[in-house]
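Section: Multi-chain targets

For targets with more than one molecule, the full set of components is provided together so that the structure can be written out for the assembly as a whole rather than chain by chain. Components appear in the order listed by the source. The example entry contains two components.
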Amino acid sequence: MSMQMALPIAMIPGNSVIHRINPLAKIVWVVGYIALAFSTQNVFLLYGMALFAFLLAPIAGVTKPLLKGALILVPVASSLLAIQIIAPAVEKPWTHVADIGVLQLYGDGLYYGFVLLGRVVSCLLMALIMVMTTHPSDLFTSLSKLKIPYAFNFMLAMTLQLIPVFQREVGIIMSAQKSRGMKGRGFAAVLPSFVPVFVGAIERVQQLSISLESRGFGSNGFKTSYRQVKVRPSDWVIGIIGALLLATLVTVSIMRGLWSVSSLVVFPHIFVFWLFIVAAGTFAAIILATLIYAFKK
Amino acid sequence: MTSAPVASTPRKTKAGRTNLPMTLIVTLIPVCVALNIVGGYIAHALRLPVYLDMIGTAISAIVLGPWWGALVGVLTNTGSSLINGPTSLPFVLVNVVGALLWGYGVRSWKLGRTIPRFFLLNVIVAVVCTIVAAPIIVIVFGGATGNGADALTGTFLAVGQNLVGSVFSSNILTSLADKIIGGFVALAIIEALPKSLTAGVDIVKATPLKGILLAVAGVVVGVLVIVVFLAINH
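Its structure, encoded as tokens over all components, is:
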């Protein structure tokens, strides 16, 4: 895997309806999603949220990168389900389903496993849709309207600009090490490469610091932005609908004691057994592939 | 001979600590955050068995101060959530706790004066970070992290340990390796920084990483033996 490959997630340029929504309206939806996901244990609601977020992807034209981004969930999902089958995060007594060697499988934790997974999946998909359809500068301009400190926004924006620069420089330094017959992979190559990258960056930011000082950074007064973000009536509608809908669902869920429907969902023993085989097998395959990759190189 | 321009000369406070200009701090912090994010990404891309996502936190906490390090921790997890979704957001607490320990450890408790003391500080950071991270892993992710440590978690579960204990046992191993290596890489970087930045920091000179990697391997194996012994006799 090349060090110079782009980070997995970034803004995907476009002019879709989703791209044109004001970042603040999108933030309302993402925050609402996180609040709802962590205040409910209703699997239907959680996976409904995930489905809704996923259906936005084709509208925004980001289906492929979204699926690529969501791949990071495969190891977590497989190990989460496997662990919940062998050690349910619910009170005993547990219902014994089967034995595989020394492992005892239980069905009681599977519902909770799906709840945890649903939370992560729904929040991740909605957040990825926002990130992939929002220009970072528009996001920071919008955040400053929420009275987020200008310095905080500046640091976050500068970080996002520095990440690809650092990635490129680490790649260059490791290639230079390789061309001189030194190790180009593993700890022995990666750790020493951080020193020149960081020190080089420090020398550059000292000049940037002078530049900021000469432009009166930190002075009081109204800050302008090159990019203008307009709030249209449709953005208000989307934001208000999101806030009302999600706040209502949070309230209903809390009033119903997290709205768990575990009594309605029964997992057959054979399903639990095979799910464990698939989940544990997938996770073991990932670990094995990682080890083979590490030793091969 | 010309030299590169530098920011305004840092002033010394009465306590002998360097008081850097705010514009320099505001530009240094994103560099530390970017180092955290890129370090974490490289460790993931190269399938290294550690996270490497707190090196910038350690540098900022030691050079700028513990609370600036905490800000780097907050920005790291916020920035990561803008790149790959909010899964790293709950771990902001771990980054903040690590920053406070590294910062106060070196600047107030003088745990950076010798190599053994600094090694001990990194072990303390690793243990406390695990104490903070384990409940988050259990509550938010049901004990799963998606990396190789989950295989260890599963093994501890199989021998009868409970979920929290299993997550703690597997996390302490990766955390020890990660924080000790990260701490000593930060030490090497701090030594290479301009003296104007590190004038007020009382910290030992860096040591070759090869020796540290051997020490890390020893510590991890030792702790592995202990946790396996405790799990079997549970």
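Confidence is low (pLDDT under 50) at residues 1-5 of chain A.
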